[in-house]
Amino acid sequence: MSFAKVAINLPLNRTFCYSVPKALEGDVDIGKRVWVPFRDKDKVGVLVGFSEKSDFPEIKALKSVIDKEPILSKQLLSLAEWISDTYLCSWGEAISAMIPGVLKKGKTTVRVRDEKKIKEKDVTPEMPFSPTSEQQNAIKNVLDKIEKKTYKTFLLHGITASGKTEVYLQAIDTVLKKGHSSIVLVPEISLTPQTVARFTARFGENVAVIHSRLLGSTRYQEWKKIREGSAKIVVGARSAIFSPVKNLGLIIIDEEHETSYKQEDAPRYHARDVAIQRAKLSNCPVILGSATPSLESYYKAEKGEYELVRLTKRIDDKELPRVKIVDMRMEVATRKKIVMFSKVLTDALEEVIKRKQQAIVFLNRRGFSTYMNCKGCGYVLKCKKCDAILVYHYDKRSLICHYCNAKLPPPNICPKCNSGYIKYFGIGTEKVESELSRFIPQARISRMDTDATSKRGSHDRILESFKEHNIDIMVGTQMIAKGLDFPRVTLVGV
């Protein structure tokens, strides 16, 4: 009698052995979910292998097999094992990262979305552009590996607006014609709608979307579509690298240098490195695209581990934007007071509004004020759990820890010395939005950060509103600084 090896989502670096009842012998298979007894309760696990013997005298039996077909391929299970070995997590934790949330609970059916709310969008078809000579060279190098179905990592080092996306699109077109699938990773969820729109315009309904902000049922439907092969192009944030695509032929990591590809919670994987390992298992090429490659990727390209492909010219030989650096110390000296914005920036913003154009103001700091300080004793209010300085959020009228999300009402007196001389210091996106509204009252100003996009669908709504020019000035954190393309934007302030 053989025994089933089951991986369970627990921080334990081992699999668990269960006997297979005769009634289930025809149903068990590697990659299927199973119900197993674990201590005093039942848990969902994934069957990862079989063994002819067990080291334990008493073995519990599998309760039931959930799936008719394996939900994870042997290749994905091998990838999960590599993640477990590389990032020091359990095999079960790595497998759990690959499965939609609803399936982790042992469900076999998922409630379908309300069909009345499903709307068909009109998508203007996009025709391929004639590539530049540099793009042709990049495409040729990648296509050679696609044709041979061999692994190779390409570092596509292209300056801003050099046409990296067109290289991606034409490479994917070749992959599709060969009957293979592609995965495209973007660093921010905010980039996903724009990327999906571009890819859908070229490839129609062949595109699926995977990221953490999707509703559980929506994510499951996309995952199911990918698994069944009705979507051959997957676009998404880092978790999309685990998509159950069939016949993987190409992986693309856009803005490969971004830190958001690193998962902070267990399993603490780096999506770029996982993508390269998956490409090795699939014998397919990987494209790492960036205008500012990470040091480790550039080093590997210089050593010859990756193939370096350069795009040195912008499309139509357009000039790079002019950059003006303003010394804010001189602003304070000239205007005899501390100011948030330079006169150069406010004048430029007013000019943008007059011309009916758009602007982006970037500050990588959420909230209104970055800390509360007692002028009597110098006390700064910190989080009791994390010892991090609490940030004041005007919208929520709360002091919030940006690490554990602990909230406190703003005190009227100092908790340490009972002084009433409390002041708030520092600048966040909320304060920038408020001050800009005061300086330029005629401008329509909106904000895009984690707080402003906490509701589902808010990303898309804000970006669509900006695209339709219902917003003149967008204030935001790194969400707005990663590859978004808005033709009316003629000014960026940092």
Question: What does it look like?
Answer:
With 494 residues, this protein is of the alpha/beta class. The protein has helices at residues 74-87, 91-96, 101-104, 133-148, 164-177, 192-203, 216-228, 271-282, 295-303, 328-335, 343-354, 429-439, 458-467, and strands at residues 3-8, 16-19, 33-38, 41-51, 64-65, 152-158, 181-185, 207-210, 233-236, 248-254, 285-290, 307-311, 358-362, 371-374, 391-393, 398-400, 407-408, 422-425, 445-448, 473-476, 489-493. A hairpin with a 6-residue loop joins strand 16 and strand 17. The longest helix is centred in the N-terminal third of the chain and has 16 residues, at 133-148.
Give the overall silhouette.
globular
Distance N terminus to C terminus? 67 Å
CATH topology of the largest domain: Rossmann fold
Mean residue pLDDT: 87
Please count the beta strands (DSSP E, at least 2 residues each).
21
The tally of helices reads: 13
- Provide the β-strand percentage band: 15-25%
Tags for this entry?
about 500 residues; alpha/beta; GIY-YIG endonuclease; Rossmann fold; 4 domains; 7-stranded parallel sheet; 5-stranded antiparallel sheet; 13 helices; 21 strands; about 30% helix; about 20% strand
Describe how the helices and strands are arranged:
Elements: E1 3-8, E2 16-19, E3 33-38, E4 41-51, E5 64-65, H1 74-87, H2 91-96, H3 101-104, H4 133-148, E6 152-158, H5 164-177, E7 181-185, H6 192-203, E8 207-210, H7 216-228, E9 233-236, E10 248-254, H8 271-282, E11 285-290, H9 295-303, E12 307-311, H10 328-335, H11 343-354, E13 358-362, E14 371-374, E15 391-393, E16 398-400, E17 407-408, E18 422-425, H12 429-439, E19 445-448, H13 458-467, E20 473-476, E21 489-493
Parallel strand pairs: 6-11, 6-12, 7-9, 7-10, 8-9, 10-11, 13-20, 13-21, 19-20
Antiparallel strand pairs: 1-2, 1-4, 3-4, 3-5, 14-18, 15-16, 16-17
Helix pairs in contact: 1-8, 4-5
